[in-house]
Specification:
Shape: globular
Radius of gyration: 20 Å
Number of helices: 12
Strand content: under 5%
Order of helices and strands: HHHHHHHHHHHH
Number of domains: 1
Helix content: over 70%
Number of strands: 0
Length: about 300
C-alpha cells in the first residue's frame, strides 16, 4: 500500500498539471500579472480554509514561513514565464530539477540520508527528463536559465516545508505562500503593462488559483509525511500530464524518443519508491527484533 506522502504527492502533481495547462491558455497576459491574480485567489481560499478549520494564526515559526513564501514566490514567477515561452512539456521538465536540489538540501539542512542507489535512480529519472526535452531550437538560453532558477527556488521552498513539519499546521504553510507572494508580485508589476483580462479569462484565473492552492496543500502534506528524497521523485510523473495536455490542448507533438524518456522517468520513480519501501521495512524489522539473551 502506498504511503500517505506518496498519495499526497500524486494528487499534488495532478493539480499542478491542471494549473500549468490553464496558465498556458493565458499567454496573452503577462506572467507576473497571472501570478499576482493567482496569489489573490489563493490567499482568499487559504484564509477561508484556515478559519473554517479553526487553525490559529499567525503560526509559530514566522521567519521560516516567510522564507517559504519568498522562495515559493520567486519560483512561481519564473515558472510562469517559462510556461509562456516554452512548450508545456519542456517548461515542466526544467522544473523537475527541483527534486535533485531538494534531496541535496535535505542532506545538509534536515540531515536526511540519501543512499547511493537512490542517487542512481535520481540520475535515471533525470536522464529520462533530458531525453524528453531533447534539443529544441525554439527555446532561448535565457528561458532555460530562468527555468533552472525556478527549480532552485522550488527546492529551497520544499526544504523549508520539511523543516516546518514539527511546528506548523499544513494550512498555515499554504496560507503564507500567497500571503507573501501577493505583495511580491504586486511590486514586480512595476514597469509591466497591465492587460485587462477578458471576461472569459476570469474563470481560468480563478481555476488557476484554486488548483494551485489545492496542489500546494497536498504537496505540503506530502513533504511533511515522508522524507524529501522519497516523495520528491514523484514530481517526475507530471511529465506524463505535461506531454498529454500539451498534445491535446495545444497540439504540441513529441517524438518516439519522448516516449522512451517518459518510460525512463517512470522507471526511476518506481525504482526509488520500491527501494525506499524495502529499506524502511528492513529497518523496522531490525528495530523490532529482540536482542539475544546472554547465556
Amino acid at each position: 500500500m502506498l504511503s500517505k506522502g506518496v498519495r499526497f504527492m500524486m494528487l499534488a502533481t495532478f493539480f499542478f498539471a491542471m494549473m500549468n495547462t490553464a496558465v498556458k491558455f493565458l499567454d496573452h497576459i503577462p506572467a507576473v500579472e497571472i501570478a499576482l491574480l493567482r496569489s489573490a485567489v489563493s490567499l482568499m481560499v487559504a484564509f477561508a480554509l484556515v478559519k473554517v478549520n479553526g487553525v490559529p494564526l499567525p503560526g509559530n515559526n514566522r521567519r521560516a514561513l516567510l522564507l517559504r513564501g519568498l522562495f515559493g514566490s520567486s519560483s512561481l514567477v519564473l515558472y510562469f514565464i517559462t510556461l509562456q515561452h516554452m512548450p508545456l512539456a519542456t517548461a515542466v521538465t526544467l522544473q523537475y530539477l527541483s527534486p535533485i536540489f531538494t534531496a541535496i538540501m535535505g542532506i545538509w539542512m534536515v540531515r536526511e540520508r540519501v543512499r547511493p542507489l537512490q542517487w542512481l535512480f535520481f540520475a535515471v529519472s533525470f536522464l529520462g527528463v533530458m531525453i524528453v526535452q531533447g534539443f529544441d531550437r525554439r527555446i532561448e538560453p535565457l528561458y532555460v536559465l530562468l527555468g533552472v532558477g525556478s527549480s532552485l527556488f522550488a527546492g529551497l521552498a520544499y526544504k523549508t516545508i520539511r523543516q516546518l513539519k514539527q511546528t506548523e499546521h499544513p494550512l498555515i504553510i499554504t496560507f503564507y505562500f500567497p500571503l507573501v507572494s501577493l505583495p511580491i508580485t504586486l511590486l514586480a508589476m512595476n514597469g509591466v503593462k497591465w492587460v485587462s483580462p477578458h471576461w472569459l479569462d476570469w474563470p481560468i484565473l480563478v481555476f488557476i488559483g484554486l488548483t494551485a492552492q489545492i496542489a500546494q496543500y497536498f504537496m505540503t502534506r506530502a513533504y511533511q509525511a515522508d522524507e524529501l528524497s522519497k516523495v520528491a521523485s514523484l514530481k517526475y510523473i507530471g511529465i506524463v500530464y505535461a506531454l498529454l495536455f500539451g498534445y491535446f490542448f495545444f497540439g504540441e507533438t513529441f517524438s518516439l524518443a519522448a516516449h522512451m524518456g517518459m518510460l525512463i522517468v517512470l522507471a526511476g520513480v518506481i525504482l526509488n519508491i520500491g527501494y525506499k519501501h524495502r529499506m524502511e521495512a528492513e529497518e523496522t524489522k531490525r528495530a523490532t527484533m529482540k536482542p539475544p539473551l546472554d547465556v
